[in-house]
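Lecture notes, part 5. Sequence design as translation. It can be helpful to think of inverse folding as translation between two languages: the language of shapes and the language of residues. The source text, in structure tokens, appears below.
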């Protein structure tokens, strides 16, 4: 039995039906999820989803960055040479890749809410177990598994946020929660300054483990499930009606819901979802998106990994090294307040394409500023961050816009996973170049060229999207 949409109060029409429709038609016409989500104003349920998903991203960023501050201390405690820290630092990155590629499609079967709750609990518990690690082998294994949990959580967080977001605000919503990931990076640096001197490196993992476990309790109580996931299981789900009435109180108890065109396809397995990304309709868009992700993450991780060492090798003070590095993250957070609304109001493809091309100019300027005054270096670092870090937030929002809801978690997860290839290879190539005596300014010029490739891919993706709509 399906639900129907009544007029809930005398004299108040249902906003999803024509005002002059006959009474019988108004009581029986179906309602699509798209009409409810896109047509309603921003309300409390949107704030709740943004807050909870933002907290998950914050702790994700905190956990990911904590190892960078704990590594030097644990290396001294265990007597590890500097080269032995490489596997410790990269274990979570490889875990992230596996989580993005292998686990993100599971949301289609189990729902975004369940995936977010389980993975938050898992990466919290595994991070807490890192406090018991007795050697590098144990820590590497735990960090790899932790990375898998982090990698599975992010695509579902992005997908759930975008599903509740009206299309006119979707980019801004995704950019907002990604700002919390960047804030988690910054918070890890601030907290490490207080925790590590008092409690050692294990204290960082204790903080990074306990907080996600506490958040899990809150998520179980308050995080709503994806309406599209519930509708795919049953149009008569009381949970579905409860969630949608929070978005639109005018819906009656006998409302009848139907799937949007993009959601009406049969349920697919995790493997078939991945295969569809590479079939005729989606393969060109998917490959262009992957190129942009690879290029952006190569630039992002190359700058984040090597800027402190390069600036330090030039004899700069420690405060300047820290300031330049932090400003690349702060620049991205500030830029998100502009890029997100511009993507919503102008064009997501044109906006992001311009961001990457400007980023190429700013990164080249950063290479020149290395030999200039301190203020010039700091300004160039900030401007580079607005486009490189801001671009990384933006490309995730773009991926959420490209794919329909049933493909969104898998599409975002695989783009992030494939993009990690750039995040791994980029810093390695920069290290080889620096070791071979290549001037840092030349290295940054090459990174700038990589951003040009990212911009070209996004603009081509925009042309393809416009041709499909025509």
């Amino acid at each position: 039995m399906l639900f129907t949409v009544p007029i809930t109060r005398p004299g108040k029409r249902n906003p999803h039906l024509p005002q002059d429709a006959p009474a019988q038609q108004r009581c029986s016409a179906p309602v699509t999820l798209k009409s409810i989500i896109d047509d309603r104003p921003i309300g409390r349920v949107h704030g709740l989803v943004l807050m909870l998903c933002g907290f998950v991203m914050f702790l994700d960023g905190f956990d990911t960055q904590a190892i960078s501050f704990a590594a030097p201390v644990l290396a001294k405690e265990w007597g590890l040479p500097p080269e032995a820290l490489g596997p410790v630092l990269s274990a979570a990155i490889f875990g992230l890749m596996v989580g993005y590629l292998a686990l993100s499609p599971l949301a289609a079967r189990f729902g975004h809410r369940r995936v977010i709750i389980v993975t938050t609990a898992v990466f919290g518990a595994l991070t807490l177990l890192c406090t018991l690690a007795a050697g590098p082998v144990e820590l590497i294994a735990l960090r790899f598994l932790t990375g898998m949990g982090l990698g599975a959580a992010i695509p579902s967080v992005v997908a759930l946020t975008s599903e509740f977001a009206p299309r006119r605000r979707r980019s801004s919503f995704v950019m907002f929660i990604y700002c919390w990931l960047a804030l988690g990076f910054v918070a890890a640096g601030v907290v490490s300054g207080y925790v590590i001197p008092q409690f050692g490196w294990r204290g960082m993992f204790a903080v990074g483990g306990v907080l996600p476990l506490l958040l899990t309790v809150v998520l179980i109580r308050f995080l709503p499930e994806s309406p599209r996931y519930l509708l795919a299981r049953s149009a008569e789900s009381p949970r579905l009606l409860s969630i949608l009435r929070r978005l639109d109180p005018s819906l009656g108890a006998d409302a009848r819901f139907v799937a949007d065109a993009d959601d009406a396809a049969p349920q697919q397995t995790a493997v078939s979802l991945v295969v569809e990304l590479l079939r005729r309709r989606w393969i060109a868009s998917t490959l262009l998106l992957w190129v942009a992700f690879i290029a952006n993450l190569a630039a992002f991780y190359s700058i984040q990994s090597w800027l402190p060492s390069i600036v330090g090798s030039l004899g700069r003070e420690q405060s300047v090294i820290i300031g330049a590095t932090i400003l690349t993250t702060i620049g991205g957070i500030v830029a998100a307040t502009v890029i997100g609304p511009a993507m919503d109001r102008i064009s997501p493809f044109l906006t992001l394409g311009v961001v990457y091309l400007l980023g190429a100019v700013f990164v080249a300027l950063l290479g020149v500023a290395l030999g200039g005054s301190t203020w010039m270096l700091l300004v160039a670092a900030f401007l580079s961050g607005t486009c490189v870090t801001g671009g990384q937030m933006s490309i995730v929002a773009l991926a959420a816009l490209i794919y329909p809801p049933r493909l969104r978690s898998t599409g975002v997860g695989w783009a992030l996973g494939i993009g990690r290839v750039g995040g791994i290879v980029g810093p390695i190539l920069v290290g080889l170049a620096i070791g071979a005596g290549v001037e840092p300014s030349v290295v940054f010029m090459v990174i700038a060229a990589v951003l040009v490739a990212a911009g070209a891919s996004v603009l081509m993706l925009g042309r393809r999207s416009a041709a499909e709509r025509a």
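The translated text above is only one of many valid answers, since several sequences can fold into similar shapes. Confidence is low (pLDDT under 50) at residues 1-28.
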